[in-house]
Amino acid sequence: MKIVIAPDSFKESLTALQVAQAIEQGFKQVFPDAQYDKVPMADGGEGTVQAMVDATEGEIISVEVSDPLGSKVNAFYGILGSVANKPATAVIEMAAASGLHLVPRDQRNPLVTSSFGTGELIKHALDRGIKHIILGLGGSATNDAGTGMAQALGIKLLTASGESIKAGGAGLSELATIDTSHAHPAIKDCHFEVACDVDNPLCGPRGASAIFGPQKGATADMVEQLDIALSHFSHIVTQELKQDVSKSAGAGAAGGMGFGVMTFLQGQLRPGIELVIKTVGLEKYCQQADLVITGEGRIDGQTVFGKTPMGVLQVAQHYNVPTIGIAGSLGDNADAIVEQGMTAIFPIIPGVASLDEVLAHATTNLINTSVNVARLIKLKL
């Protein structure tokens, strides 16, 4: 029997690899002679770098960069191991350098927060000779349309008096000219793929400021100011660079970073789970599998909309392989994924417990649940 174990991480508890290892440990108690392929997964959000590094036996690179407010912070990105004999690939999570979690709640202000640190991570990878970068959007503290990132890569964004615009979303309203002549020379030789799971445009009622600004600390007045600034920035980009992707799906992602990577890096936006599936080669593992096991911290009605278990299920279905989901907990409408074809879903929490207790005993609960799932399968066999 060949069993493929391809879960996402259990947030704040276990990495995707640790989840896969626990499931394998449980199943081996019932099927000790089965072949197990562990393929850590992610959907482009938090944990993507670690999952993809683990899946390809790559390495984590630590770098000191600027946080959203300009202070120094230790961030990281991943260099993937050999994947189908292709050149090295770097995987970067925007949140590692420009994440909301890096800004104290009472200091969150998208008028001033910058994506400069994300640009520093990209620069570090380019300086290593990397020619393929996967950038995960999401969890950002910024609303600067990627201008901080662009400045870190040598692109000059200038006021009418020739000074650099101020950092943050408010500074976009000062922009008069764009000088790309000093941009990092390796940008043009690097292929940027961007994990993006939202379709918001840059501006307007569904834009970056209106939809994502409040969770980053923006008041109603700030949202209006930020939206006007983004609109002005888009106008100058059209005027200076003769291109406009402001209405493109995903342009408003991560405070307009979607617009920034399309404009300055010619990045291609794709659903995160698709990028991960392709990069780790999930299909080759599933082709001859007898069973696929996936999971995430919480399976609920949203899981079918681009989350890891849904992506894994679709690959398994292509090869007619039954798929089981194991989750930390099941939320409202969790059966939606069963309606999509998953064989069964199981929560691992055995009884009433505090969150701290649940997180502390995740490995044990995961192993115990996996043993029982395996026993059910053996009973059918």
What features would you describe in this structure?
By secondary structure, the protein is of the alpha/beta class. The protein folds into two domains: about 1-40 and about 280-380, Rossmann fold, CATH 3.40.50.10350; about 50-270, Glycerate kinase, domain 2. It is about 35% helix and about 15% strand. It contains 14 helices and 15 strands. The chain has helices spanning about 15-30, 50-55, 95-100, 115-125, 145-150, 210, 220-240, 255-265, 270-280, 280-285, 310-320, 335-340, 355-360, 360-380, and strands spanning about 1-5, 35-40, 60-65, 70-80, 90-95, 130-135, 155-160, 175-180, 190-195, 270, 290-295, 300, 325, 330, 345. The strands form four sheets. A six-stranded mixed β-sheet has the order 3-4-5-6-9-10, with helices on both faces. It has a five-stranded parallel β-sheet with strand order 2-1-11-13-15, sandwiched between helices. β1 (about 1-5), α1 and β2 form a beta-alpha-beta unit. α1 packs across α14. The longest helix is centred in the middle third of the chain and has 22 residues, at about 220-240. The model has no long low-confidence stretch (mean pLDDT about 95). This is Glycerate kinase. InterPro entries: Glyc_kinase_flavodox-like_fold, Glycerate_kinase, Glycerate_kinase_RE-like, Glycerate_kinase_sf. Belongs to the glycerate kinase type-1 family.
